[in-house]
Design goal:
By secondary structure, this protein is of the alpha/beta class. Helix content is about 40%, strand content about 15%. The strands form 2 sheets. Strands 1, 2, 3, 4, 5, 6, 7, 10, 11, 12 and 13 form an 11-stranded mixed sheet that branches. Helix 1 (about 10-20) runs parallel beside helix 7 (about 240-255) and helix 2 packs parallel to helix 6 (about 205-215). It starts with a strand and ends with a helix.
Length: about 375
């Protein structure tokens, strides 16, 4: 499993939006946080939002997340941050609406040693998770082909408030070090001082808490931030929604390029942990043969239907399904992400999955074994 932590409600809305279909998951009684879970090809993704901002609250949330969901192996801190502008260095000139990926780790810049000779940071850089860095490199390679899948995920936005304000150029992705401390900066002088001292692209207030919490529990971590301000006297909240959505879209694109985990097709109730309070039942409380299926199980059944194998085939199916499904399903050249979107959208309507089966029967015949198997899987999914 993968965990995603946000600090603010505006960030949480963006993450839930790009994840698509999510469901609430009940944690143990001694966990005060609320969680929602999505089923993606890379495996289940669980997300939560902090009750307050800051590294201490982030560490507290990360500890609860990893205890309540012991199968999480990687945590992503997603949200907004101040960006460090460098007008004289176009390769590192971070601007409003850009995304900064902490591929070079997180620096806990307020964890310092102070002597008469000056200030120096204690400890080493909190490194990024290798599993996610492989995905980051996939997206970097795609960008060299002028392919930016995360940009497509920002449209449509959750609401007009999340639309990107006018900017002088398209959003870009920067990779490097992100600073994390307990300072809400409204000082360009302090921002530039920290950026020079630690070689930072962005600065925020929670990533160190999450990174330390994950590392102490043997898990990996990655920080992804959208730039909402410059941390100077002109700081405002205008760019927060758009920056939140940009960071969330990047995270979703990153999750989409990750290979499926070993248990990706396992039902959510089996992977959320062994506590009987999680997802309403304990792991293994029902036999695999009779348990309700997950969305990923539907996708596995859809992958065996010949009329859903190519983008052209899927477009034909969507045309027959018509609106609103046709306009909501995400087009993707990759079969599994495309089918996951199709299953998620159809599942959001009372007759959506039944309509899908009817269309496939028209194309392949009512006696098609893969279509009958999909219909059976849908019945178990609904139960």
């Amino acid at each position: 499993m993968i965990g995603v932590i946000t600090a603010l409600p505006v960030e949480s809305v963006a993450v839930r939006h790009v994840l698509g279909e999510v469901r609430s998951v009940r944690p143990p009684a001694d966990d005060p946080h609320q969680y929602v879970q999505a089923e993606l090809p890379c495996g289940p993704v669980v997300t939560t939002v902090l009750t307050t901002t800051g590294n201490s609250a982030a560490a507290h949330a990360c500890a609860h997340l990893l205890r309540s969901f012991p199968r999480i192996d990687t945590v992503i801190m997603c949200g907004i941050a101040l960006g460090v502008p460098r007008r004289d260095d176009p390769e590192r000139d971070v601007r409003l609406g850009d995304v900064v990926v902490g591929s070079a780790g997180v620096v806990h810049y307020s964890h310092v040693r102070v002597t008469d000779e000056g200030v120096s940071t204690r400890g080493s850089t909190l490194v990024a998770a290798p599993r996610l860095l492989r995905g980051v490199n996939e997206l970097r390679a795609a960008s060299l082909r002028d392919d930016h899948p995360w940009r497509d995920l920002t449209s449509p936005p959750p609401s007009p408030r999340y639309e990107r304000p006018p900017a002088e150029r398209d959003a870009q992705v920067f990779h490097g070090r992100i600073g994390s401390g307990d300072e809400l900066l409204r000082s360009a002088r302090r921002r530039d001082e920290l950026a020079r001292r630690e070689d930072l692209l962005a600065i925020e207030m929670e990533a160190a808490g999450v990174a330390v919490g994950a590392a102490l529990d043997g898990r990996g971590c990655l920080t992804v931030r959208g730039v909402s301000d410059y941390g100077d006297a002109a700081k405002s909240d205008l760019w927060q929604p758009a920056a939140s959505l940009a960071a969330a879209a990047y995270v979703r694109a990153l999750l989409d390029v990750l290979p499926p985990s070993a248990g990706a097709a396992t039902d959510a109730t089996d992977v959320a942990g062994s506590s009987p309070n999680l997802a309403g039942s304990s792991a293994g409380s029902v036999g695999t043969e009779h348990r309700p299926l997950s969305l990923l199980d539907l996708v596995a059944a859809m992958e065996r239907v010949s009329s859903l194998q190519t983008p052209q085939d899927r477009d034909d199916v969507l045309r027959l399904l018509g609106p609103p499904v046709e306009s909501l399903v995400r087009r993707d050249a990759r079969t599994r992400p495309a089918l996951l979107s199709l299953a998620s959208v159809c599942g959001g309507y009372p007759s959506g999955l039944a309509d899908l089966v009817n269309v496939l029967e028209r194309l392949e015949g009512a006696d098609s074994s893969p279509v009958r198997a999909l219909a059976d899987a849908i019945e178990r999914y609904r139960s």
